[in-house]
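Q: Predict the bound structure with glycinamide ribonucleotide.
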Amino acid sequence: MKNRTKMAVFASGNGSNFQALYEATQDGRLDADIVLVVADKPSAFVLERAKQAGVPAFSFTPREYASKQAYESMLVEKLEGAGVEWLVLAGFMRLIGPVLLRTYENRIVNIHPSVLPAFPGKDAIGQTLEAGAKEAGVTVHFVDEGMDTGAIIAQRSFAVDGSDRETVERKIHEIEHQLYPESLQQLFSRQQSV
Ligand code: GAR
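A: Predicted complex:
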């Protein structure tokens, strides 16, 4: 039997990327299991999606903890308890701190809606459109201590061509839902063969 990677998906909102990843784990495109969903907002819709999918989920409220170190230490306990090997950020709107970075060194990935290094940080699609950029796109990258600065794993772009925000957003999501499972499958299979 194939060795399936155990991953946790971190999200803050809608969770369409969680959904795409979950479906890829079910239909054979991604040899991995999402063993935990972590949300930093108890009202995040991703929690409803996790429930529907039968994936264990956990939410917390960062401001109820004394520090990032305190809530990340609590998360490490949950993640290790679930046997999590990789952290997959999918719309998680919070910087990862030293406790998680140390525990999951080189095993944290993120997806970002721009062609990095252009437009890191919040509202990357808004930034792209406001700057009048010719191209929009998506980057999958490793997470380091910076804001969207880690080594790039995969990128895909398309011409904006005067499209409105709704159209650009839809294209970005379409790309993300394909590119993220594909990139993770490559990454995990490389890991297993070393
Ligand atoms: C995605 O477009 C993702 O790239 C972006 O949040 C969206 C979440 O959508 N992430 C960032 O901007 C991180 N800086 P989803 O909740 O439907 O998956």
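A: The chain is about 40% helix and 20% strand.
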